Fold this sequence. Notes:
The complex is a heterodimer. Chain A is mostly helical. Chain A has helices spanning 2-10, 28-56, 64-67, 70-95, 99-130, 139-171, 179-205. Chain A has one domain (27-205): Four Helix Bundle (Hemerythrin (Met), subunit A) (Up-down Bundle), CATH 1.20.120.80. In chain A, 78% of the residues lie in helices and 0% in strands. In chain A, helix 5 runs antiparallel to helix 6. Chain B is mainly alpha-helical. Chain B is built from six helices and no strands. In chain B, helix 2 packs antiparallel against helix 3 (43-65). The longest helix of chain B has 24 residues, at 75-98. Chain B is flat and about 50 Å long. Chains A and B meet through helix 2, helix 4, helix 6 and helix 7 of A and helix 1, helix 2, helix 3 and helix 4 of B.
Amino acid sequence: MSEAVAAEVHGHGAVADQYEPSLTPGNSGKLGMWTFLAGDAMTFGAGIAAYGALRYQNVNWPDPADWLGISLTAVMTFILICSSVTMVEALSGIKHGNVAKMQRYLALTVLGGITFLGCQAYEWHHLIWGEHLSIKTSLFSATFFILTGFHGMHVTGGVLYLGTLLARSFQRVFTVADSNLIEIAGLYWHFVDLVWILIFTFVYLI
Amino acid sequence: MATEAAEHQAHDTHPEPNYIAIFIYLAVLTGVELLVYAMQFPTVLKIGLLVALALAKAVLVAMYFMHLAMERKGLWIIAATPILLVFFCYMMLRPDLSARAWVSHPHPEQQIGVHEGQEASGPPSSSEASAPQS
Lengths: 206, 134
C-alpha cells in the first residue's frame, strides 16, 4: 500500500506490477469477489425475473402456502440471518487478532449452513416423495426447484468454502493480515443470505 | 508482505457497524413480513409491503454485513449493475408472456398445458387463440 502510494507520488511505475484496485484499496481479492457476486446476482436475478414474469400471467398459479411450509422456511431464514451474524463476528475476531474467536464463530457459521441444508433436504424430501412434486409437474414446481436448488448449491459451496478456511486456520497460524481472506469469504456468505431473503419473500410468501 | 498488509489494516480499518443492531433489525423485519403474510390485506398492498420489506432487508445485509456503506462509493456501480440488468430482463420477458395465458396444474393427475380460454369457452376460436401475424 505505502509503496504503491509512493510510486504514485513520484510518478514512477516502480511497483507497476503490483495491482492496487481503486475501488477496494489494499484488497484486490475483494474486488474480485464483488465482480463474481455481480455476475452471480445476474444469474439469480434472471431466474427470479423469469419466475416473476411466468407467474404474473398465470391465473392458475397455486397458493404457495398450499404446498410449502412457511414455518419451517421462516426458521431457515432465521438460521441464515444468524449465520451471517456469526460470520461478521468471525471477521471481527481476526481483525483484532483473536484467532480462537474467529475459529469459534466460523465453526458456528458452517454449522448454520449445514442446518439450513438439512432443513432444505427435509423440505425437498417431503415435496418429492410425500407430495409427488417434481420439476416436471408444473411451472410452479419447476421454478420452485430451480430457484431453491440453485440457492442450496450456493449454500453448499459456502459451507465448503468456509469449512476449508476453518481447516486452514488449524494448519497455520492466522494473523490480522489474513482478515482479508475472512472478509472475502464473508462477502460470499452474506450474498447467499441476501439471495435467500429475496427467495423467501418471492417464492414462499407472495 | 504480511507486515505490509497488517500496516494497511491499521490505516484502513473502518469503524465496525453495530452488527447486533443489524441482526435485530433483520429479525424484526422478518417478523413483520410474517405478520403481513398472515394478515388479510388486499393483494396489491400485501405484495407491495412484502417486496418493500424484503428489499429493506437485502439493503441492510449489503450495506452493513457486506460493508457497502463503508466502502468507496464506486463499488456501488458493481453492486447496482445486476439490479439494472435484471429489471431489463424482466421487461424483456413481459411482452412475450402477456400474449399467452399459461395454466399450471400442480397435481400430476390433472391435465397440464391446457389454455385458459379453451377451458372457459369450449371450442377455441382460432382467431383469438393465435396471435395476429405481422
